[in-house]
Amino acid sequence: MTTASDSQSPALAIPRASRIARFAAAARWALAVLACLWIALCVAIGPLYWAEGSIADWTQANSLYFVATFLITLSIVGLLVRSGRPRDAAQSREPSLWRSVVALVTQTLAERLARTHPRVDRALRTIATYTSSFARRAAAATGRGLTRATDRGWKIALILILGWLWVPTTLMSAFGADVRSQAREFSWAWNQWTGMKQPYIGFFSFVPMDIYPTAHYMWPSDPTYLTDQHNIVLTVFYGGAAAISRYLTDSNDAGFVALSVLQWLFAAFCCASAANRFLNLPWLRPAHATERVDYAHPERPHYLRPVDFSRPERGAVSSLTITKLRPQPYPNRAAGGVARFITLLMFLACPLVLFSTISLTKSPLFAFAFTWWFGVWYELLMTWRPGGRNPLDAIVRTPVHTLAAFVLSTCVMLISAKYAWYIIAAQIVLVLFADRKRWRTYAVALLLPVIVIHGGITLLGSTGSIITGDPIESRGVQLQMIARVAKLNPDGIPESARKQLAPIFNLDQMAEAYFQQDADPVKSSGIQSKKVSYKWRTVTPDDMKNFNSAWLEITKANPVIALDALLAECYGYFDPTDMPYVSMDYYVTSDYVQKSSTWLKLVNHDWRETVAKRARAWGAIPVLGWVTHGNFYVTLTLLIGAAEVILRRWRTLLTHFPLLLLMGVMATAPANNFERHMLPVAFVFCFVCLTFWRESRAAQAGSAANQDGTEQRPED
């Protein structure tokens, strides 16, 4: 007698597993399609918002932009997936369509020339043979030379320092309003510490905290002038340097130049460290490389090779550099000359990098620290090994220098950007599932800095030692929605919402201050021509409790206008055709440098204008100028991430997940297409491409190695 459980044959389980696999594949492709649709939407609505229009003004031209962009982006994802999937032997031998067409045309022309002009044909073949041979040898020699020149981190750092030397020596420093506000804060705090009486809370007083502004209800009763608006650690460091400069030279300029030089050196170190890890894979040649083979670490190659295979008595020599190591299988193969050239070209020629090295604002510092941090993550990715029954498999040691780099880069990220701790916290949660064996490493390098730095700053704010940032700073999208409705349809604001917002905002001033690219005017930020739309002097915590309900009510009553406000503030980050609202050359030629400085404005004043003008001219060139804009790298990185999802490269996606979080930060930032927010993604873009290339080659090599009669598990 058969039971119900016995009646289910194994044949019925296979279709169920197949259905699950197909559903999972469809879900992965759906995510990729959504990414392409989002990029297509951002590109299509660009012309509407350039003309300060609305999505309701959608025309056939916008539909054409949308369809064309969607097809292009989806094709890019498809090509990436095709290049990253394992191939069987027949597919690997099959030439591409482009090569087939070129071969057909070339063969046809060659046969016709051979029939009509045999002597010319022989001469051309001889020239082509010698030219091809010379080109191959020259390319190989150039690649070997470039590899030798960049096979160590200190060599890469030296190249960057020499290539960037003209930036601090001629441009000297670049900054905007932030560093001047930090210097002003520290100056007021120093005056307080030395006993000078200063105004504090009062209707006629105006202190540094009123510039951003920070609501008065957040100020402690005991006067304090330091805030966490621009990160308290940086405020003290930058402000202290400016104070020393004023004491020695009677101006801030020397201090700002010194700070720019220090950041320039830090940028060279961070970029060189990351490039060394991605290009040279230094964990393949540890300090004990002169020892015999370490069988506990099978990912490491043999570092000793015989001097002469025919004469073993001559002993062995050590292979300490990638130029001496035998080529390793992918993905453990060091980068070739082309990858090294493109990476160096990106860092040495892109204005995004050049201007960021000396720009004294928090985003470039965070971006360089993130680049350093990103390189450490790649090393952890490449040295990960799955657990097994062998006790040695459970031992995963992180080198001391790698752990130190991990800790320091995390700390710099935390002191330079407030949202860094969200990114780090998300990574902590993910690695608990993906790499539990190295939990001690992540506890020391990620969890401990968050507790000490973020927790310490929170403690300083709770004790009244400093003033924390105003929560209104994180509500930029909501403010833009309310302000746009107040400007375009003031009668559409429900009376109940108007009453709830009355203690917080002046709606008439919000409407006048509204600018679709930037939420700062609505927040009353700045010192010039301040419009009091945000009632920071009188607002209370109880008043703020009604903000979300009022915003939701206004949004429901005006959905199209609210959608316009949202899209107008974030579409530029994902639209390569959109020019930056504030590019990095702004800090080089800002009025704070060219007009308000003491002596810096007199040194190379015209040269700064010339450099910035040339950078803007390059960026204005269609297509060719895209490489100077951050949104170009953001868009391509999103497409590469979509391909990685389809290819199920989950462990790689773990290290690339912070890039997706950074894109979320961009979408909720107070300004549209603000180039400094895109710096981290742009700086590591070449490394993301190199990782994708290596893993694709590894997949293809593994597929070719498995063509021994065994059946390969399908990708989907």
From TrEMBL:
Q: Per UniProt, which keywords does this protein have?
A: Membrane, Transmembrane, Transmembrane helix
Q: Transmembrane: present as a keyword of the record?
A: yes
Q: Which domain of life is it from?
A: Bacteria
Membrane-spanning parts: 29-51, 63-81, 156-177, 231-248, 254-275, 338-358, 364-382, 403-433, 439-460, 653-671, 677-693
- Name assigned to this protein: Beta-carotene 15,15'-monooxygenase
- Cite the source lineage: Bacteria, Bacillati, Actinomycetota, Actinomycetes, Bifidobacteriales
